[in-house]
Amino acid sequence: MSVTPDRPGRPVLAQPSAVEPGLDAGWIARTVAAALDEDLGAAPGRDVTTQATIPASSTGTAALVARAPGTLAGLVVVAETLHQVAARLGLPDPEATFHAQDGDAVERGQVLASLTGPVQVLLVAERTLLNLASRASGVATATAAWARELAGTGAQVLDTRKTTPGLRALEKYAVRAGGGTNKRMGLHDVAMIKDNHVVAAGSVGAAVRAVRATFPDVAIQVEADTTAQALEALDAGADFLLLDNMPTPVLAETVAAVRARQGRDGIPAHVELEATGNLTLDRAREVAAAGVDYLSVGALTHSAPILDLALDLVP
């Protein structure tokens, strides 16, 4: 696969992305393979329309185009999708020239990439690469709106685990492309003690102690609905507090109470605080002004509409 950028002075990229960390190449390959199996049937599969109507020898160019303004993510899947389709059909890899990269803001009608090669490969790959890139770009676009709203406040927007099964890595990558921050990747890397854990363990303190004893290497976040619960969690040894569904005055009061305890009695010098629950874009700056470090927004991934992208053959 030839990946040719056209920006003066820009280096040749294995993936059209400035997002760090990038998507794992192995994850991309596995995800594209599963998506193609879903569309074509078990490998090598078939596209009964394209393969019946277009000769294998036919070549052409297709433009990947934005049909709406937004923020890009997911272009990194394009080359792998074309490569896998070409391999299934026994045809040469198309060449891809990218005119934009993941993380870029784009306008309606902007050409994002030019793809040249066997027309069968271009059309068979079309829906898979559009599904993945449109979904990721929708998440990036939604995230960018929050990042712009929070600019200058000192607070950052976080994602959650409310992701599409099988696409978590892509959607969290898209959050980064949109200017947001990833919270935890799953249940394995950060302990989050919520109300059901407290009920099962008997108390916040018991839950924190159990995690510390079993998994001493992980950070512990505790959910709190009130100022009293937040202070109890702080005393129990939480590293990070999730302040859930608090009205803004209560949130500000809780933040002040926690900040007043920082650096005393074994409490860290800075306790990370996250607001969550019923957050809307029009409240973002108000919530940030309460002094939290983060606003976590499940809607970034569970409710973002796609960014409309298209693949058009050039006459």
Shape: elongated
Report the order of strands and helices.
Answer: EHHEEHEEEHEHEHHEHEHEHEHE
Helical amount = 40-55%
Name of the CATH architecture of the largest domain: Alpha-Beta Barrel
Please report which band the strand proportion falls in: under 5%, 5-15%, 15-25%, 25-35%, 35-45% or over 45%: 15-25%
CATH fold annotation of the largest domain? TIM Barrel
The secondary-structure class comes to alpha/beta
Please tell me how large the radius of gyration is.
23 Å
Number of domains: 2
Kindly summarize this structure in a few lines.
The protein folds into 2 domains: 147 residues, Quinolinate phosphoribosyl transferase, N-terminal domain (Aldehyde Oxidoreductase, domain 3, Alpha-Beta Complex); 154 residues, Aldolase class I (TIM Barrel). Helix content is 40%, strand content 18%. Keywords: Glycosyltransferase, Pyridine nucleotide biosynthesis, Transferase.
